[in-house]
Amino acid sequence: MLKTFVLVIIAATIGGTGHVLLAKGMRPVGDLTDATSDRLAGMIARALSNPWLLLGCRGPT
């Protein structure tokens, strides 16, 4: 029972941290759904080069 509780707490912490990192990484990029086609490539390049976004997607190893 304790092992399950610890695993749930760890999973919730990792999941929450990932969401925060994704949000922090996407703030400077902007909303991709409102992007025009000529700005989309630059926004994607900025997103893929943002370390906060990459950490949020990858998570801990």
Task: Describe this structure as you would to a colleague.
- The chain is mainly α.
- It has one domain.
- Helices cover 74% and strands 0% of the residues.
- It has 3 helices and no strands.
- Helix 1 (2-26) runs antiparallel to helix 3.
- It is elongated.
- The protein starts with a helix and ends with a helix.
- The relative contact order is 0.18.
- The model has no long low-confidence stretch (mean pLDDT 87).
Q: What is shown here, in short?
A:
This protein has 3 helices and no strands.
Number of strands: 0
- Tally of individual domains: 1
Question: Helix share of residues?
Answer: over 70%
SSE order, as H and E?
Answer: HHH
Secondary structural class: mainly alpha
Radius of gyration, in angstroms, nearest whole number:
15 Å
Largest sheet, in brief, is: none
**Percent strand:** under 5%
Output the number of helix runs.
3
List low-pLDDT spans: none
